[in-house]
Amino acid sequence: MSDDITPFRIDVPESDLDDLRQRLRLTRWPEPATVADWSQGIPLDYTRELCQYWLEGYDWRACETRLNGFPQFRTEIDGLDIHFLHVRSPRENALPLVITHGWPGSIVEFGKVIGPLTDPGAHGGDPADAFHVVCPSLPGYGFSGKPSRPGWGTEHTGDAWDQLMTRLGYPRYAAQGGDWGAQVTTAIGARHPDHVVGIHLNMPVVAPDPATLGDLSEREKAAIATMDYYRKWDSGYSKEQSTRPQTIGYSLVDSPAGLCAWIIEKFWSWTDCDGDPANVLTRDEMLDNVMLYWLPGTGVVGPAVLGEFPHADPRDGDRSGRLLDLPEGDLPPVPPVGGAPVPGPALLERAGQGRSLRRVRAA
Questions:
Q1: CB 43 within 8 A of CB 275
Q2: Distance, CA of 160 to CA of 184 (rounded, Å)
Q3: Facing residues of 199 across strands?
């Protein structure tokens, strides 16, 4: 295995874009849902309109140019090519920061924050708050390599990110992540506390100790109800991707309309969009992200890589769900943790009150 870090540039062949357009033209559309809202999935009219724009108005080359405006690289870690952005701050002593996306996200998400993070003085902030920013593409996502065998879960990925940061010359760094990125970041903090000064999560997944479920505040009960809703009505994609990813993968890598619907429905569900993701994201921003799945053909590999385990109900004592692989008993010291909780802050408040929480899940 080589420790070489090689420059990378996105250059999608025009033939790939022609193929995409042809597939969009030949889309075989389903019948509309029996309801007029999104409760049965993304509406037919919405999907057709967005795909029509994808065919006739969307400009991939504009996205490609923006991404190529950031320094990009690939390096091999544990036999897999890892693609990443590496944007150094003009402030030499800036704090290194690794930021990790999730599903259905990509490095596209970070385009608007890299400038303020690396050069806060130019964006109205304090220059002393600068970061050297590293944004890797998860294994099987974007332009990273696709694992050919099991084993690249969140812990392995966290170890790889630590190796990446060390390879870049950053023996001490901070880490941030959301969705799968939050679980990778949690693993980094738990497994490499000597290297990590702190972590920030915008999706910490915690639950009260089962023994205390009879002593919940009203806000905690509301948070549990939100988790119940997700489990019953909003987690079908997760069950499929974590149990039979290959089956859904045939559709996701063959049909751009199917991939678009699969991803955009989550933008509707997971953004504060007041019923329409276009209220918070432009059509170009949505499709830029979809393209980071379509062009590399990662509709099946990425979700399968990080979903290599059964899912347990976080409210009960069943430990069949995957937990961080830490020794029993006293846990090792971990770096400071900051978070923007999802679904809400109520459960995290227990920690500040000295009340019991289960160990943080790795998914």
A1: no
A2: 10
A3: 175, 337
Tell me the CB-side half-sphere exposure of residue 156, using CA atoms within 13 A. 17
Other Cβ atoms within 10 Å of 69 Cβ, number: 11
Q: For the chain, which residues score pLDDT lower than 70?
A: 1, 301-334, 336-363
Is the Cβ–Cβ distance between 199 and 182 less than 8 Å? no
Smallest CA-to-CA distance from 195 within 72, 357, 332 is with 332
- Tokens representing 256? 């751009």
Beta strand residue intervals within the chain, DSSP E: 5-7, 72-77, 80-87, 95-100, 131-136, 173-177, 196-201, 337-339
Contact 264, 105 (CB under 8 A): no
Cα–Cα distance measured from residue 251 to residue 27, given in angstroms and rounded to the nearest whole number: 12
> How many distinct helices (H) and strands (E) make up the chain?
13, 8
Angular region, 299: left φ>0, alpha ψ -120 to 50, beta rest: alpha
Q: Which of 60, 71, 166 is nearest to 114 (CA)?
A: 71
Give yes or no for a contact between 357 and 207, defined as CB atoms under 8 angstroms apart: yes
Q: Could you tell me if 99 and 177 are in contact, meaning their C-beta atoms sit under 8 angstroms apart?
A: yes
Residue 35 neighbours by CB under 8 Å, 6+ apart: none
Residue listed under structure tokens 């540039």: 9
Q: What is the pLDDT of residues 192-239, one digit of tens each?
A: 999 999 999 998 877 777 888 888 889 888 888 888 898 899 888 888
Q: How far apart are CA 146 and CA 152, in angstroms?
A: 10
The residues near 128 (Cβ < 8 Å, ≥ 6 apart) are 91
Q: Residue 97 CA to chain centroid, in angstroms?
A: 16
> Which superfamily, per CATH, for 1-363?
Alpha/Beta hydrolase fold, catalytic domain (3.40.50.1820)
Determine the pLDDT at residue 163.
98
Q: In the prediction, which pLDDT does 226 show?
A: 87
**pTM for the predicted model, two decimal places:** 0.87
> Per-domain residue ranges for the chain?
1-363
Q: What is the pLDDT of residues 144-161, one digit of tens each?
A: 999 988 889 999 999 999
Q: Is 116 helix (H, G, I), strand (E, B) or coil?
A: helix
- Sole residue written with tokens 């940061």: 165
